[in-house]
Amino acid sequence: MASLSLPRVLHPRKTSLELERENFQKFQSVSIAKAVNPSETPVKEKHVRSAIIGTYQEKSGSVFWTFILRQPLQENQIVAWKFCHVLHKVLREGYPKVISDSQRYTGKLEDIGKLWQHLREGYGRLIQLYIRLLVTKLDFHKRNPRIPGNLQVTGEELEAIGENDINIYFQMSVEMFDYMDDILNLQRVVFGSLDLSRSNSMTPCGQCRLAPLIPCILDASQLYDYCVKILFKLHGALPADTLTGHRDRFSKQFQELKSFYNTIKHMQYFKHLITIPSLPENPPNFMIQAELRTYITPVVVLPPEEPLDTDTVVDSLIDTSDTNSLSGDQLDTTYNGSISPDVLAERDSLIDHLHQENGRQRQELHRLLSDHQRIVIELKNRILELEGALSTKSNELIQEKHVNQELEKHKSVIVSKFREIEEKNKIVEEKFQKLKEVYSKLRDEHINLIRKKAEIDKQLGGFKINHEQLERRAFESEQRLNELIQGQTTVEQEAQRVTQARAELDEVRNQFDAVKTENLSLVAKIDFITSEKTAIEGDLHDLLAQKEELETESKRTQSQIKTDADAAIYELFLNCISQAESILQSAIRTIDNAAISAITCTPDYIGDLVNPTLQTLDDLEVSYENYVANSSNSKQVIRCAILSAHALAMYLIFAKSTSNISTDIAQSDKITDECKQLGSQSLLALNYLKEKSALTVEQIINVKNQLKKVSLLLNALINVQNNSNIIGDLVENELQSMDKAIEEAAKKIQDMLDKSRAGDSGLKLEVNGKILDSCTELMKSIRNLVKKSRLLQTEIVSQGKGTASATEFYKRNHQWSEGLISAAKAIAMGANFLLEAADKVVSGNGKFEQLMVASQGIAASTAQLVVASRVKADRNSNNLSALSDASKEVTRATGSVVATAKSCAHLIEENDDADISNLSLHQAKRLEMEAQVRVLELEQALETERLRLAALRRYHYQLDTEG
């Protein structure tokens, strides 16, 4: 036997830290080897997770790279492909320092890519493109070290990274485009190789190729979101022509990314692994900055990760693969009937490792809690941003009102100008009428003069005929005179006749001269009148042309005024409907705001809001029908739309506040969902109204029906309010029942202690005495805590009730009162459970675990009472301080009961332990196997009881809520 122990003396035993380090490295080596095994199957998530956890334990990536480079990355293409997938996951989710550690291996990655690019079949092309993507990712993080590996940054962090510098944003967008190109190239080749290999997404070989696309989808979603936000910033500061290349490149990537997402959605393999967001039909228009407000960030959703398999962890820590090759000396685990020290050391190291693993899990839980707090802070900041946006919207609404007022002023100016033009037109019309009258008079005079001239011409023609006749008669008279001269008998007669004819001829010549002179004066006058007529006709023509021009200008001005007025009225109509939509959207966002959960409203008040809201919807329906019949009735439609939106928004907010009084979470959630549906229906009705759709009236009817549906759900809460009327009496009754139950339990425990001291002896008396003494101390502490709690509650009621009674105070604060009732009931039941458990243990029919559970349960119930009392207490109250001290005393007493129960159980076990010093090797081995079987059975029973405990807690919570 001395020869067997000699090697143990020569080789010094390793410390616990060295053993832990060795086990950790061994576990990392096994996990990485299993993650990149050469079988054509997808990488198992638990192996990758183990590698990621290793980076957090080491706070670096050195161990990961140490073991990953030992794998046959240049010999086996499947190992190289899985290596790329594992490295991508580690870079995204591992410790932040992994990225800087991995940047030193960029050359090694490029060598692997160059090697496999010569393989034209299989995974060669895929490995080359994946290596290029990983190198691009490392270079991107090297140039942008403030962006984490998972690419998740908030809007404020993105602005801080950009430093409000357009040049930085410009360069960052180019780098993101390059990153996105590598992702799209990889997915294109993966799908192409999937078709060539004639495999689908449900075969192992197909899943091996498709699995790495999940981290690619996560990266692509973040890159798309940041590219959109950065491009909007660039277009707000740079000319559009400068960013033409950016827009073209983004549009191309948008179409490819949308095709990529659509392909993933139709694959069965990804149904339960990832939820893909939907991209819009068209890319955002960066030329319109207002589209940034309607942009929705695509969010990729992953299912919750499964916990690590502890059996696998333990198996990986204990190597049982070569047990057949152990020597007989190594199998000898007994020395003089005792267990071998090596087995004990191995067991201790395993226990230490499991404790450390438990500590790491707790650290992970704390990290998750800190992440949750960070998310809550981010959500609060987002709420502040939304409130700022709401104030901005209000300012924009005020600006729109100013614009509308300016439009009204502009309209009045145009109307006044139009009136001035009408007055000028009237003046011109009067001048035209006067000129027309003058022209008519001149025309009449001209016609009379023409008629007179015609008569004079006629008279002149008669005079000419008479003159010719007289000349002919004179000629004849001269002939006759010559004949008379020749004849003496008729000379005298003819002489007289000639003299008379000459006198008549002179008279005719004088008349002819007078007529001729008058004719010349008439011709001159006619010429003057004709020239005047021509001048007047020219002025008249000019006036007619001016009149036609003024009429044309007047018609054009009227048409323009009408067009501008219609456009202004329609724009005002659209703006008002948009503002009504904003009111409803603000109300819908308020429903989702966590802050409103603390606001309550009575069902009676919300019931009074139903009829006025329905009346506004009826008015909107009637005014819209009138508006369709006559578009000039838009003012009434605008007024009714805004009133309806305001009434619906108020109803939604008060309905949500009313749902907060419900103790049934499912009913409250149902009311919230129906309120959101009412808001969506209302927004759809306003959208139809804005588009003048034929479905507007039908949609308004749908809104009214949805409003009535919500009203029916809220009416059911009246019973809840009625139940709160009796809660004030229940508080005092339950508190008195609690005091009575505690007093009775303490008295019975004291009676059991007296009986045990009188009838028991030895170990049983010692155990019973310790148990009952600790229970008595616990009951004293609980009685003291209940007393301090009652004092604090009396102080709270006296400070908060005002002139009302205590019952009225409990009724007003029924939720807080229900908490007190629940805590009182729990303490009373806990006291009974503790009494029953102590009775069974003392009588020998119970287990110490029952006593531990009962004491912990009553301590938890008293903690609930403390919390319920502390909610409304003054922080500087002396009673609150005394209650806190009493709570600490209960915690200490509970720990004393648990410790006493454990020590007593251990004492009994030591007394009942069998003597194993005389067991043979076979007997010891058989007992060891039986103990292992018993351990497995107890572990299985423990898991079953934990599930049963969780189900009982859920059922208890449900009963407590319904009660």
Please, could you describe this protein's structure?
The chain has 30 helices and two strands. By secondary structure, it is mainly alpha-helical. It folds into seven domains: 21-132, Serine Threonine Protein Phosphatase 5, Tetratricopeptide repeat, CATH 1.25.40; 151-302; 343-392; 415-567, Orthogonal Bundle (Helix Hairpins); 593-716, Four Helix Bundle (Hemerythrin (Met), subunit A) (Up-down Bundle); 722-913, I/LWEQ domain (Up-down Bundle); 914-963. A two-stranded antiparallel ribbon has the order 1-2. Strand 1 (334-335) and strand 2 form a beta hairpin. Helix 2 (16-35) crosses helix 4 (62-68) and helix 24 runs parallel beside helix 27 (814-843). The chain starts with a helix and ends with a helix.
